[in-house]
Automatic annotation (TrEMBL):
This is Uncharacterized protein. It comes from the Bacteria. It comes from Caballeronia udeis.
Length: 79
């Protein structure tokens, strides 16, 4: 479990730095990485809470163009 915790530590540091530069955030990339970590079996409740907080952080600072791209992708998938 220490390796997962270390991965989360590293991810937190990177994302907190990127929050200062929202145009650099590729929210889909980070969301996917966080969701992969969340899918791992045996995660501690503390680690799940940290990952959930990171997902919330990404969603609040996602650049408008990134959100627009997701909307386009969703619209194409619906047709």
């Amino acid at each position: 479990m220490k390796s997962v915790s270390a991965e989360i530590d590293m991810m937190e540091k990177m994302l907190h730095e990127l929050v200062r530069r929202p145009r650099l955030i590729r929210s889909a990339y980070w969301s996917t990485n966080i969701e992969c970590l969340l899918a791992r079996p045996g995660l501690r409740a503390q680690d799940k809470a940290r990952l959930a907080a990171l997902l919330d952080l990404i969603s609040t600072v996602a650049p408008a163009s990134d959100v627009t791209q997701h909307l386009r992708t969703d619209a194409l998938a619906a047709t």
